[in-house]
Amino acid sequence: MRVHVLNVKYSPNLGDGVIAECLEHAIGQAPGVDHVESCDLAGRTAYGTGLNKSRGTVRTVLSLIPGPLRQLALSVMLELVIRLKLSAHYKQSLSQADAILIGGGQLIADKDLNFPRKINAALKAADNRPKPTAVYGVGVAKSFTKKGLSLFKKAFSGRLAQVRCRDTLSVTRWDSKIGHPSAQKVWDPGFLMSELYPSDKQSTGSKPLIGVGVTHPETLMLHADPDRRIMNEDDWLTFYRNLVLSLLAKGADVELFTNGAFDDQEFAQSILEACTPQVTDGQTIILEPTAATPGELSLKIASFDGLIAHRLHANIVAFSYAVPHVGLGWDSKMQGFFSETERDAFLVKDVDTGDADRVSDLMFSALSQKIDPQKISTIQAEIHKQVVDLIACLKVTSFNDAEPE
Predict the structure, then answer these.
(1) What is the tens place of the pLDDT at every residue in 338-386?
(2) Which is nearest to 363 in space by CA: 295, 305, 300?
(3) Rounded distance, CA 368 to CA 98, Å?
(4) Over 70: is that where the pLDDT of 62 sits?
(5) pLDDT for the residue numbered 176
(6) pTM recorded for the entire structure
(7) pLDDT tens readout for residues 207-248
């Protein structure tokens, strides 16, 4: 059985690659699977391809266009990209599939109608040879536009054998917004990262090394929940600088890192430059080059004694390696993960410029409360069972070629 996964594996945000590689790993171990591969919805075929360095410029240009015209421009551009490039990419990639997964990540979301249009086009391209399809390990957004919801329902109508979401909030949202088939909860595939890339880390430093994950404020503002207040760039720079200095003053070394996006790395450099004049002898703050692959990012995270980050999969990877971590809240997927792992006490839901000491104190508190390795092993075993059940379901499912709603 050949299983092909629709995702954004080669996104500049290596967290998406974490999900894809872990899901491929689990599917590949399931009985009866001969081949598994990902089809990147943006048409990328390797890490480091597609928009990254130019993303900030594109966003800046688009931000200058008035709202309604911006939406129209994006819609026209996306339709052209799908017609001229992506449809052929989808058709070629999915032509040999025996089953299709829409797998992992916040794919059931319709910012600028990006995923509704791409998923619709990909599944349409696969219709030359109908095949069982499922949604697995995904996050579901809090709200949808009327058009986005319509496109999702059209794409999924009469097609899905199974729907499995990565947290309880996403299950509830799927059932209330799309509804058929009803969803069940599974663990995010990213919990398998320590199994896929084992680490033999042995801490030898006299001070704890804290990894501070940096996300550019524009990304937070673009993708945060609609009711979430996000600080501007200057305020975030102040917060990060004060957080780093607070960690240093309390006896930690600090490494700034990112999940791979170029604008995140640029912002991390700004933070380093803001901190350096105030760093005293005996204190260490570094910024390493951007990781090139999910494995490289994950082993970097595994080398930390503690982690503070906005990015969901930086936190999931940290948990997988039993690295104590503190989450900086900005959307409900972070809330879902911290609730599911019973770590709500280590999620700072609304960060302000004056919260640096509070966050650093929470980090040191987390360092004193180790993550239970048995809990990690239990979650990983459950993921493998969930994926085996998924593959078994797809094997006995016939594609129902129903008319779209």
Answers:
(1) 999 999 999 998 898 899 999 999 999 999 999 999 999 999 999 999 9
(2) 305
(3) 48
(4) no
(5) 95
(6) 0.92
(7) 999 999 999 998 888 877 777 777 899 999 999 999 999 999
What the block records as the tokens of 204 is 């030898």
